[in-house]
Specification:
Helices cover 38% and strands 18% of the residues. The chain is an alpha+beta fold. The strands form five sheets. The protein has a seven-stranded mixed beta sheet, with no helix packed on it. A five-stranded mixed beta sheet has the order 15-16-17-19-18. A four-stranded antiparallel beta sheet has the order 9-10-14-12, with no helix packed on it. The longest helix has 25 residues. The radius of gyration is 25 Å and the shape is globular.
């Protein structure tokens, strides 16, 4: 039953209605030009007032003075120089007394700037770590458009240029979250500022270009592609990929893109995407982005997935051959509501994106695959969260708060299990407190009321107080302060129960006591979550001989499920089970997913195997994205 009866529908009329109602946070939705009547002036004043409500410490932009509303991007992609040369032309909305518009840049070469077709004065400010340099452009009252011609750096942090190998063509992809869009385009790079866009992109012949927009389904022989994103998005959701890829439909609104060697495997693996989409709509309202497609990137992609609107970017490590890792797709799909539709206003509010998304992901998985599967996932999340809280508490307890304080720091520091899983358990507590039916109705209404707007933590609390927790007894039962502004996990954290996981734990205990031999494990009857639980809970001092016994019985080193393989490799390092080491080295050279890299390199470091870690990292580092090398360099003290 769909409790969200007033469904959100994308139409030009609704877009205007939503955006004229005023934006929330540092920015808001893209709007049509205001007319001169008093109603339009009032709407503009409301938007400007809303922009003053929060401050984004990671952006130089001054949206209360002037902000972008639409981008027309014309660009050429050069694989030889590893640069993007382009012109970013923005429509802008300005306050009546605006004197400048400010953009975020990082290692961009700015060739020229035009205001309404005339050369304009501009200046680049001093460079700051993580944030880059402000580009300030002088404007006159009434200015409507700014055009910036520029070239990116070959070492732009958002871009990974994957070299051609054998018969495999070169590949380029971007990763703009959190504040890396500014490294490949001058932009107001704040999650609270939204804009629609059109683009014309020229690439080498034979390659296909794709963006977070309406996409082609076949290679254009002349290498020129045109894109349109009608819905307004923040800069971190601006995405580009260029490579030899093919398209295959898996539903009325869903398709996969992948390299020729992976396209059939990807189409099989993600054949149920439409089913996931329908389940999501049944829960919280109509999908607002027209299509939901998925692109399999090279293995060097640093994340499991990135929720770029209309086109999720995904790692090939989720192709297991048995559709067992589709929870990642459910997660990125859920972002189409929580994150892409209602967006954290600043990176201090990151939990508003990810906590909601993990909750929504779990509900999708429950609806499609059953509660026993979703509760196994929730149990694994809880295990990871407890470990993360312990680790972070030793370094900085404040980083275990939901509301973060990242001023002066790279916002990437906030992308931990706290935002994801502590946020999830907070929402699960809300559901438990008021009941699922009431919670679902509230959450659907939240997504509708704040569609295409930003949300910060304090305004969210006020909204929660006025709506779901209007009853003082409910508010007292939840304890907002301890969850949002307090460290660790509050005492009222919901408990998860998975009989299947409990059986795995009992079997593991028997195995460790030699009451169960390896050959008698129900390995072939277990799904990946059960196998992962068993391996990830092995004692660090498990003898190599016992690892060999497990491997001989079940061939775990040869598994095609990368989540299971990762757990096995980490334990192999800690047990010094050397027969797995060649697989570990080849895996780390090929795969750049940070979720796997960090624990594996850390395990080598903590077990006194730094020589191996540095040797492998030296071979692999040039193939990793900057998001991964930044973390690994610090972990391994790489110079």
């Amino acid at each position: 039953m769909n409790l969200h009866t007033a469904r959100l529908r994308w139409s030009s009329a609704l877009t205007v209605a939503l955006l004229l109602a005023g934006c929330a946070g540092n920015g808001g939705g893209s709007t049509p030009s205001d007319s001169n009547d008093s109603g339009a002036s009032s709407a503009k004043a409301q938007r400007i007032a809303a922009m003053n409500q929060v401050t984004d410490h990671h952006s130089y932009s001054r949206p209360e003075e002037a902000r972008i509303t639409h981008l027309d991007w014309d660009a050429s992609i050069d694989f030889e120089t590893r640069t993007i040369t382009g012109t970013a032309t923005y429509d802008m909305e300005t306050a009546d007394d605006a004197e400048r518009i400010v953009f975020d840049t990082h290692d961009l070469t700015i060739q020229s700037v035009m205001i309404d077709g005339e050369p304009a004065e501009f200046a680049l400010g001093p460079d700051q770590p993580f944030i880059g340099r402000p580009l300030t452009v002088n404007i006159q009252p009434g200015a409507e458009q700014v055009a910036i011609r520029y070239t990116s750096s070959p070492s732009a942090n958002a871009l990974l240029w994957v070299e051609a190998q054998g018969d495999r063509a070169p590949f380029l992809f971007t990763q703009s979250q959190a504040i890396l869009a500014r490294t490949w385009i001058p932009v107001q790079d704040s999650p609270g500022i939204r804009f629609s866009y059109d683009a014309t992109v020229r690439v080498p012949q034979g390659l296909m270009a794709l963006m977070s927009a309406e996409n082609p389904t076949a290679v254009n022989p002349d290498g020129e592609y045109r894109f349109k994103m009608a819905q307004p998005i923040p800069a971190y959701l601006l995405a580009l990929a260029v490579g030899e890829v093919e398209f295959q439909s898996v539903g009325d609104r869903c398709a996969v893109y992948a390299t020729p060697d992976l396209i059939d495997k990807a189409a099989f693996e993600f054949a149920e995407m439409e089913q996931l989409l329908l389940a999501a709509e049944e829960l919280y309202g109509e999908y607002a982005w027209d299509r939901y497609d998925l692109l399999i990137l090279p293995a060097a992609f640093p994340f499991g997935g990135m929720e770029n609107p209309r086109l999720t970017f995904a790692t090939p490590t989720i192709i297991a051959g048995d559709r067992s890792l589709v929870s990642l797709v459910a997660h990125e799909l859920a972002h189409s509501w929580s994150g892409n539709l209602v967006t954290n206003a600043t990176w201090d509010d990151f939990w508003l994106n990810e906590g909601f998304t993990v909750y929504f992901e779990q509900r999708i998985m429950e609806a499609v695959y059953g509660r026993d599967v979703s509760e196994m996932l929730a149990t694994l999340s809880y295990q990871g969260l407890v470990d993360e809280v312990d680790a972070i508490s030793d370094l900085n307890p404040d980083d275990t708060h939901l509301k973060l304080h990242l001023k002066g720091r790279d916002p990437d520091d906030g992308m931990t299990a706290i935002a994801y899983d502590k946020g999830y358990f907070f929402l699960r507590l809300l559901e438990n407190t008021v009941g699922r039916e009431r919670f679902d109705e509230w959450l659907g209404g939240y997504f509708e009321e704040y569609a295409f707007k930003g949300m910060d933590t304090e305004r969210f609390i006020a909204y929660l107080d006025e709506t779901l927790l209007a009853d003082p007894a409910d508010k007292a039962a939840v304890g907002l302060e301890s969850w949002i502004y307090g460290p660790g996990l509050p005492a009222n954290c919901p408990q998860v129960s998975s009989p299947r996981i409990e059986r795995v734990d009992a079997i593991l205990e028997g195995w460790e006591k030699d009451a169960i031999v390896s050959a008698d494990l129900p390995w072939n009857d277990w799904v990946y979550q059960e196998r992962y639980r068993f391996l990830s809970n092995l004692a660090d001092d498990t003898p190599a001989e016992r690892m060999a016994d497990l491997d001989a019985a079940w061939g775990i080193s040869r598994t095609g499920n990368n989540e299971v393989l990762f757990a096995w490799m980490e334990q192999s390092i800690r047990s010094r089970y050397t027969p797995t080491y060649p697989r570990i080295e080849s895996f780390l050279i090929e795969v750049g997913r940070r979720k796997f890299l960090t624990p594996l390199y850390r395990a080598m470091k903590e077990t006194g195997q730094m020589e191996m870690a540095l040797d492998i990292y030296g071979k692999a580092r040039s193939g990793y994205h900057s998001v991964a090398t930044g973390t690994m360099d610090d972990l391994l003290d790489w110079k």
